[in-house]
Design goal:
three-stranded mixed β-sheet, elongated
Length: 143
């Protein structure tokens, strides 16, 4: 079970990103509008960092509302922790737990292909466990 398996159902759905220099207030509006918790910050084709709800809250508490006019690259987490599609789901979950993060940009050949959340990984893992349990129960009932 790899991150690539999660991405299978997302063909044609690119990650939502913002360019470096975007005002924090605009990025926050995007998070709210799209109901997402983080957004990769791009410098051309490269992932410069990631801005999450946590980054906004911590900075807002520390620096006040004026930070909403700052560029996202001033508050983003950089460098972003990233994964390749070949990483196993359990390894990605372990990485998120140890680094205390909830979103991972997925890079292939150094290029952003998607973003996975801890919810995506947990849902995929639970669906697999449920399918395996149903298959085992069916096997037992027909044996």
């Amino acid at each position: 079970m790899t991150v690539a398996a999660i991405l299978e159902g997302r063909k044609g759905s690119p990650a939502i990103t913002v360019p470096r220099g975007t005002q924090v207030r605009d990025a926050v509006a995007l998070l709210s509008e799209r109901k997402i918790g983080a957004v990769p910050v791009m410098d051309g084709d490269e992932v410069a960092g990631i801005m999450s709800e946590r980054d906004v809250i911590y900075c807002l508490a520390r620096d006040g509302a004026g930070m909403l006019d700052w560029p996202v690259d001033k508050i983003m987490t950089s460098p972003a922790i990233t994964v390749e599609p070949s990483m196993t789901v359990l390894a990605a979950l372990s990485l998120m737990t140890s680094r205390r993060i909830r979103h991972l940009p997925v890079l292939q050949g150094g290029k952003l292909v998607s973003l996975v959340s801890i919810g995506d990984l947990v849902k995929y893992r639970l669906d697999k466990i449920e399918a395996e349990a149903e298959a085992m129960l069916s096997y037992i009932q027909t044996a």
